Amino acid sequence: MALLNKHFRSPFTVDNVIFGFDDEDLKVLLIKRGEDPFENKWALPGYFVKELEDLDTAANRVLEELTGLQNVYLEQVQTFGKTNRHPSGRVITIAYYSLIKISDFTKNLKPGSIAQTTAWFSLSKIQHLPFDHSDILQACFQRLQKRVRNQPVGFELLPPKFTLSQLQSLYEAILNIELDKRNFRKKILSMDLLIELGEYQEGVAHRPAKLYEFDKNRYKEFLSKGYVFDLSESKKQMAKVNGYH
Amino acid sequence: MALLNKHFRSPFTVDNVIFGFDDEDLKVLLIKRGEDPFENKWALPGYFVKELEDLDTAANRVLEELTGLQNVYLEQVQTFGKTNRHPSGRVITIAYYSLIKISDFTKNLKPGSIAQTTAWFSLSKIQHLPFDHSDILQACFQRLQKRVRNQPVGFELLPPKFTLSQLQSLYEAILNIELDKRNFRKKILSMDLLIELGEYQEGVAHRPAKLYEFDKNRYKEFLSKGYVFDLSESKKQMAKVNGYH
DNA sequence: TCAAAAGTGTTTGGGTTACACCCATGA
DNA sequence: TCATGGGTGTAACCCAAACACTTTTGA
User: Fold this and answer.
1) What is the pTM of this model?
2) Is A234's pLDDT higher than 80?
3) Is the pLDDT of residue A245 over 50?
4) How many separate domains does chain A show?
5) Does A78 share its domain with A192?
6) Residue B196 Cβ < 7 Å to strand D
7) Are residues B190 and B91 in the same domain?
8) What is the rounded distance in angstroms from the CA atom of residue A201 to the CA atom of residue A215?
9) Are residue A77 and residue A7 in the same domain, yes or no?
10) What's the pLDDT tens digit per position in B16-39?
11) pLDDT band per the 50, 70, 90 thresholds, residue A244
């Protein structure tokens, strides 16, 4: 113990980029800060880590206190520790991102609670964030873009029953590219990750789409084996994602 | 400041997995610990982060004090913060790995200095390490395996002039697979990342191999554009790397 | 009947894969 | 002359890519 007391100690936080998807846009949950610095600015949710709390536990706590959700996809991304990143003194932050279904979130919202201080923002419309939160957001988004190529994590963002078009636009939103409908369907269906429910969309002003469910067991198999998902149309398309022409 | 004083503070370290390659094996530089806990055990090199020191700076400091090398490939991997990972109290560690040329290291060694307390170990032969260093090592190695597939970082581990066979066995060592000689050469040469020097190996008991140099400019181009390296023979071979059969 | 999205097959081309023999050198 | 690793080309196959029309519903 004496050993450790010789050394500099820093307070540290976990910041959590919470992604959601609304059939249109990839969104991020921000909170309006209730205290200085940057009071009343929109920022990434994050808390200080407690003495007896593991990092993952802290990240899950942020998520649960904010959304009421448990057992959510959560991944550590990077630690940001520039000495001057916090104006009040050194604070090291460990950045996580999580993927939630917006419908679950809305369902869980207690009226009049934190609702007024949180809001979903389209990723493409978020401009400047306080601290180094823009860097953190960018790092987490890039990680998500990579992850989605080799692990079928996209399903975490969709409602339990979804159409192939929803799935496609999710991938298009995350990767910021356009995919060919026929090729996309061929590829996804060939992976045997979807269960056709025999149900259909209702109340839409066009031919109703088949609803699919995600095959959880097969998914776990994939996850545990670290299988490479390798979304089709990758060669050329990925060059676009990476900004290589 | 008052704000920050309310919160728990922890000491921080950076741990650095230093990889090297010796034409045979992928190796890791370990140090024999000079103090408790785990005195005289081999462990990953790591230092406490100072109050006015950025994390990357600290990681580079570890590297330089140990090897005398600067401007080395360095990448942050993951932060390990379990409350009980250090027997003397909570210490959070940010794990990095770096890639160095063993020849540079040897050249820089001051006789009688730290030489007696550091040594290269073949990755495959490292068994139990103190603290959670085995987890850290594993995480860094897995990151290296991924990195090497989409960025030509392998060259950081080779001497300035090298043969195609050396390059191939480097990839085989990192990915732990066998590659086809003809296909590998075709692929690598087609990337236009190598400069043929017109020089040859000397003193070998077989046909001497051409020496190549790495095209630094093209490399930087690739890096900045995030180009996907995509080592050939990937589909089937990568399945092996991922343990998926 | 119109708009809007769902759904569906085939062809083509490029890249991965598999594979075997001769060459140059030192011992 | 022998052992050792260096060096080279081609054919088969598979999969990504490109592409257009019919179907079903609500308005």
Assistant:
1) 0.93
2) no
3) no
4) 2
5) no
6) no
7) no
8) 19
9) yes
10) 999 999 988 999 999 999 888 999
11) very low
Nearest chain A residue to B1 by CA distance is: A88
C1'-nearest nucleotide to the CA of B202: C25
CATH number of the domain encompassing residue A225 = 1.10.10.10
Handedness of CA A186, A188, A191, A196 (dihedral sign): negative
What number of other Cβ atoms are within 10 A of residue B67's Cβ?
Answer: 23
| Host H or E run for residue A186 | helix A181-190
Q: Chain A contacts of B92, Cβ < 8 Å?
A: 12, 55, 92
- Alpha-carbon gap, residue B94 to A56, rounded angstroms: 15
> Which residue of A12, A82, A86, A96 is the best one to mutate when testing the B interface, meaning the one whose CB has the most B CBs within 10 A?
A12
Q: In which band, very low, low, confident or very high, does the pLDDT at A239 lie, cut at 50, 70 and 90?
A: low
Determine, for residues B225 and A238 on separate chains, whether the beta-carbon distance falls below 8 Å: no
CB nearest to A81's CB, from B55, B82, B83: B55
B78-83 mean pLDDT: 98
Q: How many helices (H) and strands (E) does chain B have?
A: 8, 10
Domain assignment of residue A179, given as a range: 153-241
**Does residue A181 approach strand D to less than 7 Å at its CB?**
yes
Minimum mean pLDDT among A117-131, A136-150, A212-226, B123-137: which range? A212-226
Chain B 81-100 contacts with nucleic strand D (CB below 7 A): none
Name the minimum distance, in Å, from the CA of B37 to any CA of chain A.
Answer: 10
Q: Are B43 and B118 in contact (CB under 8 A)?
A: no
